[in-house]
Each structure stands twice: as C-alpha cells, then as structure tokens.
Write a structure and sequence with these properties.
This protein is of the alpha/beta class. It has one domain: Vaccinia Virus protein VP39 (Rossmann fold), CATH 3.40.50.150. It contains 10 helices and 7 strands. The strands form 3 sheets. Strands 1-2-3 form a 3-stranded parallel sheet, covered by helices on one side. It has a two-stranded antiparallel ribbon with strand order 4-5. α2 packs across α3 and α4 runs parallel beside α5. The protein is globular, with a radius of gyration of 17 Å. It starts with a helix and ends in a 5-residue tail after the last strand.
Length: 198
C-alpha cells in the first residue's frame, strides 16, 4: 500500500520538530561526519550530489554550503517547498525534484512499517538492496554507516535533552557508526555512492 504525498505534506511541522530534537540533531551530525570521510577523496568541489529522500533539505543545505551542487529528490511537494525555502534562507541554490517510488519499486516485494512522525506506511529496504540499485546505476557504494546505533534503543528521551549527556552520546554514535555489529543494528543506514560524470 502506498500513501499519497498529502500525508507527508501535512507532517512537515512534525518532521521539523523531530529534526530539532536531540535524536534528529544527532542524525544530521552523523550523516555529515560520514560524508566528510569521503568528500576529500572524491576530489575538489564542486561535486554533484543526489540526495534521495532529501525531505526539506537537512543534509543538502549543509552540502551546498560546502560548495557542492545538490539535487534533492523527494516524494512530498511540501517537503521540497520547505527545502527551497531553507536553501534561499541559507543563500544556496539546490535543485529539487519529486520522485515516484511506486513506479520505481512496483516490481519488488516490500516489507512495510509505519512511521510515527508521518503516520503513514513506509517501504523498508536493506542496505544491500539499495547498494545493488546504486551499483546498477553506475554509482557504487563507497561508504556504509549506521546512524542511531545507540540513541534509538534508549527509552529515556528526557536524558537526551541534557547537553552534557547528549555530547557524550554524540561521541559514542560517531565512534560506532562504521563498526560491526553496530553498523547493522543501527536504526538507519547511510550509504554513500560515487560516480564519474563526463
């Protein structure tokens, strides 16, 4: 079952609240640290980056501010509108495009989950499945990380609000992001792919 974009459109405010919470901030810090491990080896900016499921530009804006040319693809028009607004406020220009996961995944058997933030069904994919698609597109995976290996399993959200505890939690998450078994037990996986243009 595929949800209509409107479900995501009405949850932009909830998503932005999630981004501002400790677990949301931690996710973006980890993703930026993962990318930093690869940016130097990918050559000098301007790099061309495709941010799939880029939402309101949380990752893309950071990359654009480093001089990358970023294209955001997302299913929800309201998220893309928020990304354009964030880019304008940050003084960077991102390209945004809406993709249709129904067409892209129609032939695949999928598992479903529900997200509390959006209140909708989500299609679950493994890192291997996504990595295979990237490889087929000529964009092989050069980095594989886990995000929220510890934070997601801690039920005491109040403690995460404490700045001292949060700082230690962030250090721990960054330390285990590319280590086994944490890499495979993390709440999210983060794949970085590289391709050559020209």
């Amino acid at each position: 079952m595929q949800e209509k974009p409107g479900t995501f459109d009405t949850a932009v405010a909830a998503w932005q609240r999630w981004q501002e919470a400790p677990w949301g901030r931690l996710r973006y810090t980890q993703a930026e640290a993962n990318l930093a491990c690869h940016l130097d080896s990918l050559g000098s900016p301007p790099l061309r980056v495709l941010d799939l499921g880029g939402g309101d530009g949380g990752d893309a804006i950071r990359l654009a501010m480093k001089g990358c040319h970023v294209t955001i693809a997302d299913y929800a028009p309201a998220m893309l509108a928020a990304a354009e607004q964030r880019a304008a406020e940050a003084g960077v220009a991102d390209r945004v495009t809406c993709n249709d996961p129904i067409a892209a995944r129609a032939a695949l058997d999928t598992d479903q989950a529900r997200t509390h933030t959006f209140g909708t069904a989500m299609i679950l994919r493994t890192a291997d499945e996504v990595g295979y698609v990237l490889d087929e597109l000529g964009c092989p995976v050069t980095g594989h990380y886990g995000i929220s290996s510890v934070c997601h399993y801690m039920t005491d959200d109040e403690r995460k609000q404490d700045p001292v505890f949060y700082a230690e939690l962030e250090r721990l998450e960054l330390a285990v992001a590319d280590r086994l078994p944490y890499l495979h037990t993390a709440r999210f996986f983060h794949l970085i792919g590289q391709t050559q243009f020209g």
